[in-house]
């Protein structure tokens, strides 16, 4: 069973990291993915703000899921590099990550992730970009 089939059948339970972090899948397909996550007290840094790695992890998962929607059955992926810029902190509530595939080549894919507050305001909290190796299995 493919990862996308597992996501379709099991939702969050298809991915142990989603389960641990409380990540919910809003939508995915055609090089796009949207995930949400409730901010919890155990995710805060020492100053009471959501720890920066949480933004990066949520964006990474959204970008990876977006890329999975474009892989063939014989392709797998691995992160080559990732960079995140942080714009604004949160102390509570829900955050949303949108992952988008910018370009998928035969060997490398480029993605963008935006973490924001959900709703009409949609304040951008962080932006990520990542490159992924596209590996064809024999």
Ordered list of secondary-structure elements with their pairings:
Layout: H1 3-10, H2 16-21, E1 23-29, E2 32-38, H3 52-68, E3 75-86, E4 94-104, E5 108-116, E6 124-136
Antiparallel strand pairs: 1-2, 2-4, 3-6, 4-5, 5-6
What fraction of the residues are assigned to beta strands by DSSP?
35-45%
Number of helices: 3
What's the number of structural domains?
1
Tally of DSSP β-strands: 6
Query: In terms of per-residue confidence, which ranges show pLDDT below 50 for 5 or more consecutive residues?
Result: none
Give your account of this protein's structure:
- This protein has one domain (3-136): Hotdog Thioesterase (Thiol Ester Dehydrase, Chain A, Roll), CATH 3.10.129.
- It is built from three helices and six strands.
- It has helices at 3-10, 16-21, 52-68, and strands spanning 23-29, 32-38, 75-86, 94-104, 108-116, 124-136.
- The two termini are 17 Å apart.
- The model has no long low-confidence stretch (mean pLDDT 97).
What would a concise description of this structure say?
22% of the residues lie in helices and 43% in strands.
Q: What descriptive keywords fit this protein?
A:
138 residues; alpha+beta; Thiol Ester Dehydrase, Chain A; six-stranded antiparallel β-sheet; 3 helices; 43% strand; globular
């Amino acid at each position: 069973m493919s990862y996308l089939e597992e996501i379709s059948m099991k939702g969050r339970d298809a991915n142990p990291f989603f389960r641990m972090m409380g990540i919910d899948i809003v939508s995915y397909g055609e090089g796009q993915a949207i995930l949400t996550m409730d901010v919890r007290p155990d995710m805060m840094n020492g100053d009471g703000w959501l720890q920066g790695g949480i933004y990066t992890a949520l964006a990474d998962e959204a970008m990876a899921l977006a890329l999975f929607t474009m892989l063939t059955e014989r392709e797998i992926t691995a992160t080559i590099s990732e960079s995140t810029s942080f714009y604004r902190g949160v102390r509570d509530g829900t955050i949303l990550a949108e992952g988008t595939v910018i370009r998928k080549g035969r060997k490398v894919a480029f993605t963008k992730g935006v973490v924001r507050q959900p709703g009409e305001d949609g304040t951008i909290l962080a932006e990520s970009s990542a490159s992924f190796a596209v590996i064809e299995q024999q």
